Amino acid sequence: MIKRLFHSLLILSIVLILSQTILKNIALWGIIPDIGLIFLVFFSSTHGAQESQFSGFGFGLLEDVVSLSPMGFHALHRTICAYVFGLGKGNIFYDPIFIPTLMILLGTLLKYILYFVFSLVFNLGLTFELVFNFGFIIELLYNGVLAAALYFLYANLLNKKEVEKGAYLG
Length: 170
Hints:
Number of helices: 8
Mean pLDDT: 79
Shape: globular
Strand content: under 5%
Order of helices and strands: HHHHHHHH
Low-confidence stretches: 163-170
CATH topology: Arp2/3 complex 21 kDa subunit ARPC3
Helix content: over 70%
CATH architecture: Orthogonal Bundle
Radius of gyration: 15 Å
Number of strands: 0
């Protein structure tokens, strides 16, 4: 378990660095895809709620350090997202396109709902209209389009051992 957590945090750290540097070049209206969320959802759904909470929390803390948001903002919502999608381990049959895309769309929606709720808790002054705006739709489309391709990468390249053990239904 510790080895998988280390690997997931390493991959998520690389994704975070890519998001903060290279992916900013493909931003539409300042919005980039949340590849970290995509990998976190896939990791959570294959490893369960208990294990994925730690990955979500660690990734969120790293994101808090490199962003201007209050400390704990990303850690809290990434932990909750990881837990929620970890509950689906063993309960969902994964086809190569539809289910990963649906999971990422739901994950993006959950992320924005948590953004709104936590902005109220952290008193950031965000209103519903500021959170669920055109940027939300752009990120939803970005993440949905990338979901199937990144699922293929995750299932066949990064998670080969779990596929061979039968722990992953892809």
